[in-house]
Here is the input.
Amino acid sequence: MNAPHKTVVLGEDLQARLLARLETADPALAAFAVQAAEDVAPAELPDFSLDDLAANLADFWRFGDSRPGAAPLMRIVRACRDDATECELDRLEVVQDDAPFLVDSVMGEIAEQGFQVRAMFHPVVEVRRDAEGRRGADGELRRESLIEVYIDRVGADREAQLLDGVAAALADARAAVADFPAMLDLMSRTLSELEALAPAHPRREEEAAFLRWLHQENFVFLGARVYEYPRLEGGDYAAEEPLFQPSDGLGVLRDPERRVLRRTNEPAVLTAQLARRLEDESGVTVAKSNLRSRVHRRGYMDYVGVRRYGPDGKPSGEVRFVGLFTAEAYDQPVGAVPLLRAKAVAALARAAKAPGSHNEKRLRNIVENYPRDELFQMSEDELLANALGILHLTDRPRVGLFERRDPFDRFASLLLFVPRERYDSDLRKVAGRLLAEAYGGRVSAYYPSFSDSPLARVHFIIGFQPGGHSEPDLAAVEAAIAEAARTWGDRFEAAVRELDRPAAETAERLTRYGAAFSAGYRDRYDAAEALRDMGVIDGLAAGEAVRVRAFRLDGDGPRHFRFKLYRPETPAPLADVLPILENMGLKAIVEAGFPVRPAGSGVVWVHEFELDDPRGEHLIFDEVKSAFESAFVAVWCGQAENDGFNRLVLELAISWREAALVRALARYRQQSGLDPSQRSQEAALSRHPGVTRLILDLFRIRFDPAIRAEPAERQTQADAVMAEITEALQQVESLDDDRVLRRMALLVQAIVRTSYYQQNEDGAPRAYISFKVASESLADLPAPKPFREIYVWSPQVEGVHLRFGPVARGGLRWSDRRDDFRTEVLGLAKAQQVKNAVIVPVGAKGGFYPKALPDGGSPEAVRAAAIEAYKTFLRGLLDITDNLTPEGEVIRPDAVVAHEGDDPYLVVAADKGTATFSDIANGLAESYGFWLGDAFASGGSAGYDHKAMGITARGAWEAVKRHFRELGKDIQSEPFTVVGVGDMSGDVFGNGMLLSRQIRLLAAFDHRHIFIDPEPDPAASFAERERLFALPRSSWDDYDRGCISAGGGVFPRSQKSIPLTDQMRAMLDLDAEALTPAELISAILKARAELLYLGGIGTYVKARAESHADVGDKANDPVRIDAEALRCQVVGEGANLGLTQAARIAFAERGGRVNSDAIDNSAGVDSSDHEVNIKILTGMVERAGELSRPDRDDLLRAMVDDVARHVLEHNYDQTQALSLLEMDSVGELEPHARFMSRLESLGRLDRAVEGLPDAAGIAQRQEAGQGLTRPELAVLMAYGKIQLFREMVETDVPDDPWFERVLEGYFPAPLRQYAEPMRRHRLRREIIATVVANDVVNRCGPSFPERLMAAAGCDARAFFVGYEAARAVLDLAQLWKAAEDLDNQVPAKAQLMLLRQLSRHQRGLTFWLARRARLGGVSVADLVERYAEPAKVLKALSPDVLTPVEQAELDQAVERLTKAGAPAELARAVVDLQPLTIAADLADLAEASEWPVDCVARIHHAVAEAFGFDRLRAAAGGHAAGDSFERAATRRLVEDLMVEQTTVAKAVMALARAPKAGQDKAAARRAVEAWAKTAAQPVEAARRVIGEIEAAPGPWTFAKLTIASGALRELVRAAD
Here is the structure.
């Protein structure tokens, strides 16, 4: 359908809809509908349907139903939809009698008030109205004009103004139309009067012809008025206004207040202008009136004045007509218009150009194209002068200016000619401004005109006050405009040439930049500014992102400055620029950007910003200029972050890097979790720039290597600055600000190293800042406080590495917690600290947060960005870490001032998100030449692959096996049920589920699927799991459904609901028909399986008292359960943090078997530590040239099984140690509590953090007869090892040659060929201390060392020497191993009882040997050499040498062990070591008396039997002491009894003199009796007292023991 036809169809449709709505059979309505439909233009109101239009038009028609009187009916109403909802348009509606000019006048008023017209309907209909104005069948027929205009919303504040304006326009139109006949008649009469009375003059006929021409529809008459010139009695003209009758005005001049000319001109009839007019013979004047037309066409109305003459032939007045020349009048040739034609002919004749010549034709063309209004108003002289001037311009196009003054001195009319190629709107504006300034007036109007001429023309009307304006120097104005018309290129070329550079360079610059600057640029900037920009652009280096130039202009206030931003290729988005400025505290007032396109090179965008600095009145621009420029570029290029710290650049006039340092310090403080928000820190630092500067000074004095000062001198200077800071803080009123500033200053004092002053090879500063903090120096840091931590900041990454000792190890994780990753890392470091108790390094942990990952990037892109962040983090660590030469000499990093000792040990490991990053880390370390080489990060391609070794799972499995073994089940040979977290592609879960063929895996889940097998076949399911483990990137969805028992399946976690089979409901004890995936996982965790095995990431069990928020693992909140709901028997934590510590304790309190994740999965970290220490050793051999890297790699691979055996032994030992502790947990509760208190007093334990009971909790457990749970014991055991490690390293014990065997035993056998470098191993002492500390705590418990040192009165050195000597003297290793070999052969309890008995022997002899090691210089070898052989002799004498009481005690011990299930032979061997605990005393006595030790032993035991020492000791051993003090007193009493017995034995031997007195038991008894006779009275007394006590009813009490001991003490006095 073509467009016209389509419009007709739409109109007919609209007509029908409109008539249907109004339901009135009215011819007028029908005409309205037809005409409205004809006005339809669908494109004007695209959002309106025909029904919408019909609804609005119907409403318009109803609006005109009643119109009382003849006045127009008008309103503004909201346009609406067919459903009566309003839309965002208004309707202006007018109903009035039809007349000419209505639409033009209405539309002109709407446009004048600035409203946008969307559509217009204008039906004209014939209607009848009754006397009240109601439309109907009565009344006279009349034509009405109905105008409906759709416009943008008017607003209530502008409705009245628009309606008033339309009303005024319509009133003018009505007046003009009503008086049009009268005005034509007045013109006719005036013409007749002019012809009759005007004096004869040459122009008379032309003037009459002109008036007739006007009458012939060449002029729209809008108003007329007759004026009389008042005269004096003498006939002269009076100096008064021309007179008129107010009622005589016609058209728009009906209103007597309307004046044709300005009021100041009308009475001035004797002014020079009027005097000239009166002298002029002209009877007709044409000019512009002061009235703006509201009718037909907007603009100033034309004024035609026709003189009236009196009988004396003199002017007596005038008739003034106002109106508008018609369009036809403007289109007629000059020769056809009276007055103009005569004027033109006369002027051309006077020009005297040869007829037909080129100049004559051009002159005619100039006149013909002269502005028509000007031709009407100007004189012949003015026309001639201006036309000739214009003609001359065409010969040599240039700027020309031609003036015509208004005869009434109201304005000047000027024609400006400009070479067309030089003209543009800006020149027009400049010219208008110059002209207005020259006259002291204003630009009332301008009319540009263009033709084929080489000149462009602008007609200016410059309005001014008559008599109150300047007389311009038009030649000067013309020159100024000519200068303005001079092209920008002209000025630029001149400026380039003024640089006075070599000709070739000048030519090259003009060639490159001649056309480089856009029109917009040239409009805004002059050539001098272009030269400055050109210099910057030429200075841009390849690849330079942006450059900035800050400057001020004359007139810029102290708060204002500007800068230009130069960016190659693409414009700088405001969205990128404004945030940078806002964070500097700046507001952009104005922005402009232009492309500069030098020839032969790419575009450079030049942006200018005008800035306001609300806080900048005190700043000195020259001081901050350079700093601002550098800071902006740094932020733009990503070298600095975009935040409020950049305000410091301006406040302190510091570099962006110094601001970055402050940022890094503040970020660290914020990461502590105690400091206020970043915004608060930014504000505090900016508000107190003086203090901030002092903090920077403190940092500089402490760490700037350019300051050549000794450490003491640096410290003195730093103390002085700190004193200034403290004093300045007194002036800080805000407590919050004080806290921010003070903490930052204290942080600077706590920093011991920084990379801030290091530079790259190109001399530029590092792209990151790192600093090392002595954390314990910061009092407000949350516990536990690391030994050291390194914080790394860069715009791309932030991270922290926490170390709890000089030799520490832990993984680096990719954190997703930007604002509190330190809190996350601290919590993990705490767990790592516990886990690392089994290895050489203490706990450490690191975390980094990549801040510049690509939004929406591919996984590869995200990973690449994360790797770069990881490498930056590592560089920050390595930059401030000492290195070692092959000879072990420490090398301090360049440009690092250290306020600490040597610190070369830095080892990292993989963690969450960094599992595959080890090779990257090692490559970086080797690029640094770091002494650890690829030992820096374990697990790389040349390291031990934990998954391939299955080492973490195997270690956890040792814990699981022990749990079940102690429950009486061998899970390697008996089927058992399991539910788990993880899938077979994972290391810990996948390897773990292949460690027993007896596993019946009921259910498992990971983040993708849920696996359920209600009745699994162990063999078939094992084979299928094995297949999945070997399948790359497998998931549970790959599990063969044929291997799943009936009712089971694999279900995606994305499934909305999972239907439950009967088998699933039975297995999980559920009644529901279906569950959501989260509900099903929770049910699996609560299942009645024997083992819950955790091999996946997440915390799935909490204590009931904990909230999900306390757990800190939001992702698993929907599935997590309470420990109280667990129904499994055993929990194996192959993965970290599967349970909270509170959950473990709650589960253990209910009888569940659980250790802790640090115990269960320590094999991974243990394996890595072995790898690192092995690589340190092999690295030494490599550097000595005795081992190549390929051979080393082969050696590492060959030792995999050996390393695994070492590691798994540790897992076995640790879980065994926990079981031993658990056996005695109730009895040991008080020693454990004292040990915790001691650690707290040393600041090394926070019970709340570790989940250990406080004093009140301990009291409650004592009352309930409960000890610490297994998870609590796991934590305490770790702390015991850590504390013992620390104490041993602080002694010289690790340097004892005896421990070289410990060092060798740590390493796999193939490495023992490198014994010499092994002894020089950097961590030799730490390895020895770790092995010994683990052995002590595993065998004897965490509180044993402290208790023994207190009891023996010895220090740590004596303790370690005594312990290690006791091990050797007793030769416990074989018996200990024999007991361990009984796994699954005897009840676990019997096995543990054997080990506990051995532990007691170890403790007993350690006590006596430690007391002997108190003497300085005693080594382990000294003690072993002295006591090992006597111990062997004594062991051979047992049990014959013992007293009957002693033998009975041993027999009872053996009986207890055998009843528990221990082999009788082993039980006897273990128990028979008991007498050896006193071997030291007997050996010392033998040595002192020079008797054989066997003889001494017989005498010693004979004394015990004769005087009751053995019975009293037995009684003391069986006494149930009340509190710790009574137990201590009892122990002391036993010790005293042993000393007293030895004293008596010594006296017996002295009396006997010869060793033969002890050659057998009988001789020994005789010798004792012989001595007894020498002390008959005390002997009798002692025997009597002991006999009475034994005969007394009731058990032995402490009082009885004390009395008996006192009696024996009297005996000892006799022996002395």
DSSP finds 63 helices and 37 strands in the chain. The CA atoms of residues 798 and 849 lie 5 Å apart. The two ends are 138 Å apart (CA to CA).
